[in-house]
Write a structure and sequence with these properties.
The protein is built from 8 helices and 7 strands; from the N terminus they run αααβαβαββααβαββ. The chain is α/β, with parallel strands linked by helices. The chain has one domain: Rossmann fold (3-Layer(aba) Sandwich), CATH 3.40.50. The protein has a 7-stranded mixed sheet. It is globular, with a radius of gyration of 18 Å. Bound molecules: S-adenosylmethionine. S-adenosylmethionine binds next to strand 2.
């Protein structure tokens, strides 16, 4: 069902993915140089960041580069507005598992917002090698250095079996185009198995929280959730001043066992 062009791209990605998995290179934990002061924000964005910083007692600029810092404030803004706007009660404590966490650059945001007892980020391509000679686990180790209860796990979540009270996924892959654009082979695209695993690992009374790129992707994700045996509890989407770079506002949804 994939085009010849897609299959050729996938083969190339599979080769490099296999190489990084076999080599498992690491130069050790890498910590970004903190920007200390955020400059490239307008007045409205500055006010919003100040409000978030005070409400959640965070100062990402003292730990991260300007780009990572801005991205963390954006995710915190999405969480703050989304959970308030949807009327969902914010769970605290317990185990929070984030699926497809990349280098887990937003772990500090999840820790500040949910205050879980244990925070786990699961990433299938944890050994990806970047141009600077560092790998994703090197970056993850740096981001988690100040978060003693957080952990980075390199695994395919479709095969991962650990219960959690809150499971979340920010922009999970649902289409071949997205997987190939991220330079992964098409073999990692198994959304039905992924959502079945979510349902299996979610503790009774627990919540699965998902963020999708726009309505079309959210509709596709909704069908997968329902097919896996999850029930939609709430849904929310609203543009925010820290998400102006996005073509469409992220769509948030909350799910529980049927
Ligand atoms: C679009 S990226 C989103 C990354 C991150 N959540 C964020 O918001 O920046 C999706 C991530 O999911 C990871 N991924 C895809 N399939 C996965 C799987 N089956 N298990 C774990 N991680 C997976 C990819 O490697 C990629 O890092």
């Amino acid at each position: 069902m994939y085009s010849l062009f897609q299959r050729i791209r996938s083969l190339r990605h599979r080769f490099w993915y296999g190489v990084s998995e076999r080599i498992r290179w690491s130069r050790g934990a890498f910590e970004e140089t903190p920007v200390r002061q955020l400059c490239a924000v307008n007045r409205e964005q500055g006010e919003r960041i100040a409000a978030l910083s005070s409400r959640y007692q965070v100062q990402f600029e003292l730990q991260m580069s300007a780009a990572t810092c801005a991205n963390n404030y954006e995710y915190l803004d999405i969480l703050d507005r989304g959970w308030t706007g949807s009327g969902m009660a914010r769970p605290t404590g317990g185990v929070l598992c984030d699926i497809g966490c990349a280098s887990f650059w937003y772990a500090a945001t999840l820790q500040a917002f949910f205050r879980p007892d244990r925070l786990v980020g699961v990433e299938i391509e944890g050994h990806r090698l970047f141009k600077d000679g560092r790998t994703r686990i090197d970056y993850a180790a740096g981001y988690l250095r100040r978060l003693p209860s957080a952990q980075f796990v390199v695994a395919d979540y479709a095969d991962y079996r650990e219960p959690a009270d809150v499971i979340m996924s920010w922009f999970p892959f649902l289409t071949a185009a997205a997987v190939l654009a991220w330079r992964l082979p098409l073999s990692v695209l198994a959304p039905e198995r992924l959502f079945w695993s979510i349902k299996h690992n979610l503790r009774p009374g627990g919540t699965f929280f998902m963020v999708n790129h726009g309505e079309e992707e959210a509709a596709l994700a909704n069908r997968l959730c329902i097919a896996a045996g999850l029930r939609l509890v709430s849904r929310w989407a609203c543009p925010g001043v820290l998400s102006e770079h996005r073509m469409q506002p992220p769509v948030l949804s909350w799910w529980q066992h049927v």
